[in-house]
Input
Amino acid sequence: MRRASIAAILLLAACSPAETAESSTSLATTTTSLTLVTTSQPAPATSATPAATTSTTSTTTTTPASTTTTVPSGNWADDPLITTGFGALGWWDGGIWVPAEDVGALPVVGGESYQIAVVGLEATTTGGPQTFVCEPLDNLGVDLDNEHLLGEFPGPYGVAISAPWELQPHLFEAFSDDGTYAAFASDLLADRGLVVPDPVIKQLFRTDLEGDGTNEVIVVAEEITGSYLSVEGDYSIAFMRKVVQGDVQTAILGATAITDPETQFVEGFAVGAVADLNDDGKMEIVLDSAFWEGFSVAVWEYVNDDLGPVEQLQAGCGS
Output
């Protein structure tokens, strides 16, 4: 199974003019550091419409105030189960995130409607009653009628949620790098002992997770040779940049930098989706992790400006 993810808020020296233009709030030329955070933690349809341009319960969570005003038709679960094709992640019960691995039953009976949350796609499907998936791990999950809509290894791979609200109420769009974010990725990889002058930008998104008018930028830089066997020089790093009280902060969502293939484990990361998964009007990040003979999906919630993004739910399949 995958190793526990670490959310680390790192110090950055400065912000470029290019990044200033990407945020609705001017980015300062100084930064401050944040505390290190570690966590372990609607009717049935089969058609998909491309979108626009585009585990342990944490002790720190936000308290949503529901923003749902209309409920589309569909057979929705009382508790909005978040699931994949290889296992359920859990749900928000109105007060806390509930990891599926901590309970013996899921809040479904079968026939529920699900919205698909994955980069570049809007779709719905239906799911069956709870069952065991991902042999031989036998994760608790459901069989989805159109599981292929979620994506495939090594990602982007999204989640299905039995919820009727709007999943993407705020800005989320891909854009092209002018070298600014490759330079940031190069610095972060150098901090991990790997010199990569011009990292490959795999994904680059501009978003407003909280709907507060201040944009975040989510970046994935990656180059992995072979079939997820460790090779010197391989790397994959996922990070988010955000203006916090006038300063630019960087949060690491996942990082691999192979300098010693004999002792290091390679993981490839991808943003599977950015979506509101608990109806609080704020969006979470769905992060994929691909590794040798395995795959996992995690939900990261931006808790507050002090803690930054925290992993709240996770499910994996493989060894």
